[in-house]
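Weekly sync, protein design subgroup
Attendees: M.S., D.O., the rotation student, P.L. (late)

Item 1: inverse folding check
M.S. brought a backbone from last month's batch and wanted to see whether the design step gives back something sensible before we order anything. D.O. pointed out we never logged the input encoding, so this time it goes straight into the notes. Structure tokens as presented (150 positions):
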């Protein structure tokens, strides 16, 4: 079953159960996915749908941080619940050890020698990560490894 089909099926169930938070979260997500489909001019495959879900999850994480800073517990809790719904559609993220191995392999494959190669290495790791690698963590690992080399 395609991820988009699963999201649509879950929306129908949430509507039937009267779960307003899940309904609004999934409707918003589906609108973002539809917008990406229209802009791309083609149907999205699972990897592209995962990319859209990841963007929304990242947006929620940023909002959570802002609401914590502003002491807005009501908004923080809502965003956190919505984030949990979104995370259920994302693949299990790589462990730090797996990301470290991927970084090591990319550095070796690209023959990266200095911090100037950081962008190429991060891009290579993230493109092979298929939505499972945390971009910030990958960048941190690459910077650490390349700084030690240079």
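Designed sequence read out in the meeting:
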């Amino acid at each position: 079953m395609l991820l988009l089909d699963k999201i649509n099926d879950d929306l129908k169930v949430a509507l039937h159960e009267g779960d307003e938070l899940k309904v609004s979260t999934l409707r918003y997500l589906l609108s973002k996915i539809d917008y990406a489909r229209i802009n791309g001019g083609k149907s999205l495959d699972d990897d592209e749908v995962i990319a859209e879900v990841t963007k929304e999850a990242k947006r929620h994480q940023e909002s959570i941080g802002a609401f914590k800073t502003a002491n807005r517990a009501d908004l923080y809790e809502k965003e956190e619940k919505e984030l949990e719904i979104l995370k259920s559609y994302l693949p299990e993220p790589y462990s730090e050890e797996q990301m470290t191995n991927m970084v090591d392999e990319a550095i070796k494959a690209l023959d990266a020698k200095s911090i100037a190669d950081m962008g190429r290495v991060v891009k290579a790791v993230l493109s092979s990560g298929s939505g499972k690698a945390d971009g910030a963590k990958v960048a941190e690992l690459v910077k650490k490894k390349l700084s030690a080399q240079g």
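Discussion: Residues 46-69 form the longest helix (24 residues). The chain has a mean pLDDT of 89.
Action: P.L. to compare against the previous round before Friday.
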